[in-house]
Amino acid sequence: MLNSLHRHCVWLQANWTDWLPELLAFQSTKLAIITDDEELATNIPLGFVISTSKAKQLLGQTLDILVLDVRWGLSLSQLSLLAGCVRGGGIFALYTGNILSWLKAPDHQLDRYLPWPLTSAQVPQPYKQLFYRALQQGPFTDYFPTTIPGVESESLELTPAQQTVQNSLTCTPVTLLLAARGRGKSTLLGAAAAYWQQQHYSVAVCAASRQQTLAGAEQFEQSRQVNSPFPFFSPDSLLASTQHFDLLLIDEAASLPVPVLVGLLSHGKHVVFCSTNDGYEGSGKGFGIKFRQYLRQQGISFIEHNLLTPTRWGENDPLELWLEALLFSGTMRVAQKWVENTLNIQAYHSQQWLEQTDLLDQTFSLLVNAHYQTTPDNKRWLVDDPSATTFIATQQGQVAGVCLTTSEGELPRELALQIEQGSRRPRGHLFPQSMLAHGGYSDAYQYRYWRVSRIAVSQAHQRHGIGSALIAEIQSRAVSANVDMLCTSFAFDKDVLAFWQSLGFSVVRVGVSKDKSSGTYSIMMARAIKPAAQQSLSKWVAEFRHHFVCGLPLRVQDLDLVSCWQLTQPLGEATESLPLSDTLRHHLGLFAHYSRPLETVQTLLWQALQPCWLSSNRTETILLLTRVAFGEIHTGNCQQFGFKGKKDFIEQARQNVAWLLSTYEK
């Protein structure tokens, strides 16, 4: 028998004409039916129908009844998100229609992930079989309950756990507040904003969108004692301002890139980062891992709170337990201890997953914990995309490392020309499309690539060579599979870049603007397998390095010079220096050996430095002279960089420019 605060789970297989009258008989004003069926929509009162593309608008709302129509497409991310909108005692219904027909039907959600020219009508969909099993084993009935309990008026009183957190928010510079959905995190945020305002603190609430703070704003309105507006600020507006608050509350922090979170730290005396920890919005749990690492590295004091008891529904709610088992059941079973010489690497693909459900759960669990961009939909993608292969490193049956690859390339020449000209952007094929559209490398279409889209190693197994072992296994299999080139793409990180460079991968592209999801630049790297591909790759790398160095004055606004240097360094092959023009040699010589003022040769100095970025290994000198050329170091601030004073700075600059001139042949 269900607890009155447990949610009812209903599986609708009959035609909607059979169950819709019964549903509408509940006469709930908090009903939502998510569907793209126009005929069904016309039979539902206005305001209760939402298209699947707009379903995310329900985030932050509380519903009595929600029906999710998945007949034409199953999105696990959407399922996870919408389930959290249903209150305790309410109804969550999945509408599949006839299950046998649904298992074979095309799926518009899957179509979004499949690479051109594939469609869901052309490929098997093994994940639907896994989902069918989960439905059969879940808490679903095929009928609605006779009644649903009414909603008691919500108390403004916080729970003891919430009260404890609220009172501690100004005890330390940073607070991390983590909770699964339905634990009252947003309610606490709104109540805390009102409470601390009443204590005469300046308070701001920040989130990626105002929609994410609806529950908090409602609680704020109910809790406030003065007629003040909800103090919402977008991240962009805060970062662009000089505003500083006594208390800054950031909701759904995991949906913001870590560089943005770092920037927000300077806008509050006390900063609270609130987030769900189940990855339903595509944040995964990488937020907690990476952000904690940053805080510790910077010596920033923080405390962490976890809200464990649900407030929106009862404990041991059957829908919550079912979703946890469906999406995150492998969380506690990822390998925890390194054992020498026991690593085993295998590849899994498509229908092989039907017999490896436990391994699938462990694999997805590791990805959720390692990558902030991991979404529930990714679990279906790695099973259903025929171009995807998952390489798994295990120890004694437990997952220690995971690497996801996708097969790309071998595009028709006509399509490649359209991509290069900017008139087509087919699904998938990320690497060759970028080489064509952004790099202008016309021969990129013809090669077959394996792109590493995700790589993760459990914390207990890092620094043991598992990542390298995975790539070595992929390389070996790529040779047998007649692959021309391995490639990868990732958000810029010095350690990640060094990892790929150590494996022989070269940078071929750096994004021209920061990626919205990561807050930094995207990087593309490649390693050739076949000689013909190596010839092309060498040309791509040379062109990239030349263009990147020429545009360096623009890059240093967002990327430090050490990072830029790392991005442009060759893998062993140095580029020969070009002769220096007589004009440059003359002007720089007057500075190096005589009394020419530095300010008159800064632009000329950068012209002479550019070839050194492509050929010299005297890193410190080149970086120092580049900072001088760009005006980062000058007579007014030189002591901050270790110089004794203006005279010492100019003298050493002259000596270094003299060395620079000596590197060029006359």
UniProtKB/TrEMBL annotation:
Gene Ontology terms: biological process: rRNA acetylation involved in maturation of SSU-rRNA; tRNA acetylation; tRNA wobble cytosine modification
Every N-acetyltransferase domain range: 343-530
UniProt keyword annotations, A-Z: Acyltransferase, ATP-binding, Nucleotide-binding, Transferase, tRNA processing
InterPro entries associated with the record: Acyl_CoA_acyltransferase (IPR016181), GNAT_dom (IPR000182), P-loop_NTPase (IPR027417), TcmA/NAT10_helicase (IPR007807), TmcA/NAT10/Kre33 (IPR032672), TmcA/NAT10_N (IPR013562), TmcA_C_sf (IPR038321)
SUPFAM superfamilies tied to this protein: Acyl-CoA N-acyltransferases (Nat), P-loop containing nucleoside triphosphate hydrolases
Pfam families to which the protein is assigned, alphabetical: Acetyltransf_1, NAT10_TcmA_helicase, TmcA_N
GO MF annotation list: 18S rRNA cytidine N-acetyltransferase activity; ATP binding; tRNA binding; tRNA cytidine N4-acetyltransferase activity
Name under which the protein is recorded: tRNA(Met) cytidine acetyltransferase
Species this protein is from: Maribrevibacterium harenarium
